[in-house]
Specification:
The protein contains 16 helices and 15 strands. The chain is of the alpha/beta class. The structure holds pyridoxal-5'-phosphate. The site of pyridoxal-5'-phosphate has 14 residues, from helix 5 and helix 6.
């Protein structure tokens, strides 16, 4: 507990007095005292009053009156396994993204695994991927038996750098797995050019990018397949859940069969019993109650996305002039980024050497939740070594390819290492608020910027 022994009320009282003293001492114009909580220059991390004491939008959002009717009907029907409601959700998701077909599955991770496998990616193949992603992306590649090959990022956009992708192509390369990380589109136009030139399969990881667009076309419709997640934290959620979209009917029939014990897809949706097993499969079926929750959530996705987009643009404009704060850049052809996270890079040199960790602490103390984002170990940590030591990998690759140390050396991504040192994230639910909420975020960052030297001096003594 940061506030020590004081009650919160006492704490605020004491600290705002302290804050006043500090303001007087630094000679800020007295006209600013009209709103003393706002103008106190003492950082909350040093005991001053925080910029914000209000909370943020809860997540997920659930409105009983609007959302529970269909969920209750499903529960009371006793039809809980895949049936008509899942099909309805799939039709709506395909239409929302602008793809011919959709298959709902248990989660985004298995949407990726299914897509890669049904595009015939497996043992002996290399799949090019970004190191700046959630671990599921890379685990999915390994689960197929394919070898992840890391291409470095463009730190300004936080996305995989197409030039680095091109540089990583070898005779074994079979696929590119671009991730629209944080909800900001990757450079799909360039990536598709590279894929066509080298005859590569492309699976888009859209697990953070529902409704994001390039040239008014939704991400997930550029490659052979697009994969989505509906996990609890995501901008549309069913607790757990995922989906594959594609225009390729034959591929989608295979995905359907694979997710249902290899049974023939037939009409592609609907009937789950009685049809023969025609291929190797597993079981990844979505449930009726998940689909009912998804349909409820889907109704507000567009409006929530529009709010996030508007608030993100406003916040970006407010913080972009603060020295040492470098907000994301979007590629020129991006017509919509959807902000699963709002990212910027933090440069401590512009904050009198205040470390990112100390900056994050200070920002949290001001009432602004934030995080450092991904760590830089995705292309060098032990899960890779474990996969390389597995029986299947030993059968599928020459020994040299499985030497962990040389793998790590070949897959170094220095720009990603740097990005992971500098990134700061704000979560999507914070963007569901008002302009004045965004003002609080900007005010807190500005306050910390002004007080950076003081914070550094006083918190480093604690450490
Ligand atoms: C969430 C996520 C996944 C995995 O989705 P799950 O539904 O959690 O399995 C994959 N890739 C990225 C980039 C994600 O954010």
């Amino acid at each position: 507990m940061k506030n020590g022994n004081y009650t919160r009320r006492e704490f605020i009282k004491r600290q705002s007095m302290g804050g006043l003293g500090a303001v007087l001492a630094t000679g800020v114009a007295p006209t600013l005292f009209a709103n003393s909580a706002k103008v106190s220059e003492t950082p909350a991390v040093l005991g001053g009053p925080p910029v914000r004491t209000k909370g943020w939008s809860r997540w997920p959002i659930w409105e009983p009156a609007a959302d529970e009717k269909q969920v209750l009907a499903v529960l009371r029907s006793g039809v809980w396994s895949r049936a008509a409601v899942v099909s309805e959700f799939e039709k709506k998701w395909a239409a929302t993204i602008g793809a011919k077909r959709c298959l709902a599955v248990v989660n985004g991770t298995n949407a990726l695994i299914t897509s890669l496998k049904q595009l015939d990616i497996g043992g002996g193949d290399e799949v090019i991927v970004t190191p700046y992603t959630w671990i599921a992306t890379v685990q999915a590649i390994l689960q197929t038996g394919a070898m992840p090959v890391f291409a470095d990022v463009d730190p300004e956009t936080f996305q995989i750098d197409p030039e680095q992708v091109a540089a990583k192509i070898t005779p074994r390369t079979r696929a590119i797995l671009p991730v629209h990380i944080l909800g900001l589109p990757a450079d799909m136009v360039r990536i598709m050019q590279i894929a066509r030139k080298h005859n590569l399969v492309v699976v888009e990881d859209c697990c953070q990018a529902w409704l994001a667009e390039i040239n008014h076309k939704k991400v997930g419709t550029f490659g052979n397949a697009g994969c989505f997640s509906f996990q609890n934290s995501k901008n549309i959620t069913t607790g757990e859940g995922g989906a594959i979209v594609s225009d390729d009917e034959k591929f989608m029939d295979r995905c359907y069969s694979y997710h249902n014990f290899g049974r023939q897809a037939g009409a592609a949706i609907g009937g789950v019993t009685g049809s023969p097993c025609i291929m190797l499969g597993t079981k990844l079926r979505f449930t009726e109650y998940q689909a009912a929750i998804g349909l409820a959530q889907l109704q507000r996705l567009e409006e929530q996305t529009a709010t996030r987009v508007e608030n993100a643009a406003y916040l970006r404009s407010k913080i972009k002039e603060i020295p040492g704060i470098l907000p994301y850049r979007l590629y020129d052809n991006v017509t919509r980024a959807v902000f699963h996270l709002f990212p910027f890079r933090y440069q401590k040199e512009q904050f009198q050497g205040l470390s990112r960790a100390a900056f994050l602490e200070a920002l949290k103390a001001e009432g602004i939740p934030c995080s450092e984002g991904y760590t830089s170990d995705l292309n060098k940590s032990l899960y890779l070594k474990d996969a390389f030591q597995s029986k299947n990998f030993r059968l599928m690759y020459p020994k040299e390819m499985l030497d962990f140390d040389s793998y790590v050396e070949r897959n170094r991504c220095p720009k990603n290492d740097q990005l992971c040192e500098e990134a700061v994230w704000l979560s999507q639910n914070m963007l569901l608020g008002t302009k004045s909420d965004m003002d609080d975020i900007a005010a807190a960052i500005e306050k910390i910027h002004r007080a950076a030297g003081k914070i550094r001096a006083q918190t480093s003594q604690k450490a």
